[in-house]
Structures
1.
Amino acid sequence: MNLEMHNKIAATHLQRQAYLYVRQSTLRQVLENTESTRRQYALRERAVALGWPLDRVVVIDSDLGQSGADSDRLGFQQLVVAAVGLGEVGVVLGLEVSRLARSSSDWHRLLEICALTDTLILDEDGLYNPGHFNDRLLLGLKGDYERSVMPTSA
C-alpha cells in the first residue's frame, strides 16, 4: 500500500464495511468476459490488503448480466441508498468505479453521498476520497470521460 493510500484510510473507514460492486451489462459479457468478472471479484483481496477483514467485505453481484438501461439495478440501489447513504460503508470498490452509475447525474449523486458520509472509492487506478477536492475532481472527470466514450446502456 502506498503512502497516499495509507493517509486516506482512517480507523473510522476500517470500522465500516467495504462494498464491492460486481457488474457486467449483459449475460453475454458474463459468459464471454470471464477475466473481467474474475478481476472484479479479486478486488476483495485489495480491500483485505488495505485493512478490511474479509468478513466485512460485502459483495454485491445481483446486477451481473443486467443492462442499466433495462433494469432497476437493485444491487446498485442497495449499495447507494441503503449502505452508503446510511454511513455503513468505509469504501466502495469497483473495477471501473465511474461505471457504477449509468448516468452523469447518478454518478455525481453517488460522489456527493460518498463525500457526505466520508466513504472512500477504490478502483484499479487508485483510492479516492470524494470529500477531497482533487479526488472529487478526478472522479468527476473519469465519470464524464467514461460516458463520452461508452454506450449509455452499459
2.
Amino acid sequence: MKTLPNIIGVLAVLLFLGWLGLQIKPKPFSVHPEKTPELKTIPLPAGLPAPVERFYKTVYGEKIPVIETVVIKGRATIAPFGVKLPARFLFVHNAGKDYRHYFEATWFGMPIMKVNERYLDGKSLFELPVGKPIVDDASTNQAANLAVWAEAAWFPSIWITDPRVHWEAVDDKTALLFVPYGNQEENFLMRFNPETGLLDSMEAMRFRDSGPQAKKILWITRNIGGKR
C-alpha cells in the first residue's frame, strides 16, 4: 500500500509533463528566402455576380493581381487522435494546379508526428504517420483538387484570373464557383457576408475517405476571424 502514493505521484508528474509539452508552441518555419515580386494585374472583370464583385472590390479594388505561386507558413492546432497538438505547417501552391503540404505536430516544440501531402499533375499522395501511403486514389484525387481551390481563399484572385474558372449568380449573398477537375468541373457554393463584403464560407461535395467505397459528404470551409 505504501507504493500506491508513489505510483499516483509518478503518474501525476507524467500527466503534468504531457500537458506542459502541449502548451509550448513550435517555432515558425524559416522565412522564405525569395521576396514577393512585383505582381502583374488585370482590371476587375465586368459581369461578375453582385456579391462576387463586391468581394473583389473590398479585397483588391479595381486591379486584380495575377498570382502564380504561393508559399504559406503558419502555426495551428491539430487533433488527429482526438488530442489537440500544437503544430506548424508549410503549404506551397502552383496556383490553380498543384500543391504540397507539410505538417509537424510537436511536443515541447519538438516534432513528434509528420504528415506529407501533395497533389501534382492530377495525382495525390498522402503519407500519414501510420498505415500505407495513399497514392493516386480516385477519391483522394477529387478531394485534393477541391483543396487546391479552397485554399485559394488565401489568394482569391486566382478565381477570376484563371480562364478555366467561372461564376454563376445565385442571390445577393451567394454565388456558385465552378472550377476544373480533369475534363469535368466541380463547384462550390460561396457565401458572402453582406455587411463586410468578405467571404464567409465555401461548400462542396467532397470525398472524405479513399477507396472505391468512399462517399461524398458536404465539406464546408469557413472564414473565421481571430488573432493574427
3.
Amino acid sequence: MTGGIACGKSVVARILADKGCAVYAADQAAHALMLPGRPAWKKIVARFGRSILRPDRTIDRAALGTIVFADPRARRFLDALVHPLVLADREKVLKRLEREGRTRIFVVEAALTIEAGYARHFDRIVVVHCSKAEQIRRLKERDGVGRAAALRKIGSQMPVKDKLRYADYAIDASGTLASTIEQTERVYAQLMRDAELKKNGPGLRNSR
C-alpha cells in the first residue's frame, strides 16, 4: 500500500489491521533502524552531522526531513542506505508470519514502493490518494509548515497520478472517514478474493 505524503495511508492501514491483515509499516521500521546503535545511525550521523541529533542521541526526524526534502542527493543517499535494511527486516517478518500461518494478507505500508522500483515484489498494489488541496491542508496541520514547505514536500515525491498507473486498487481518502472506511472495506473484500485465488492456483502476481 502506497500513496502520496499525507494522503491517508496510515488511516487505511489501521482499518486493514482491524480487519485482520498483518500490516508492516515501512516508515516505522526505518525509524527503528535509525536508532542509536542500530545499523543506519552511524552512517546517517557521519553524512549529516550531529546537528540532526536530539540530546538523547536519537535522530531528529524533522531536522533530517528538512534536509532530504530540500536536497535530492541527500534523499538518494538516505534511500540507498535505509531501503535495503527495511527490505531485509520485512522479509524476516514475512517469513515469521508464513511459519505461523495466522494471517492471509500481509500489507506493507510504504510511501516509496513505486519510486524505489519495488512494485514488482507485490501481488497487488493499493494506492491511497486525495486531492492536492486536501493534501496541502493536512501537511500544514500535521507538520506545522506553510504552504510553500508543504508544496516542496509534495513535489519531492512521484505525482499521485503517476502512482495510480500502478494501482490494482485505489482508495480516495479526500472525503470523510466513513467514505474511506467504506472504500477500504471494499478493497479488503477484493484482496480476500485475490488471496483465495492465489491459494488455489498460480498466476496472481502481475508483471510490472
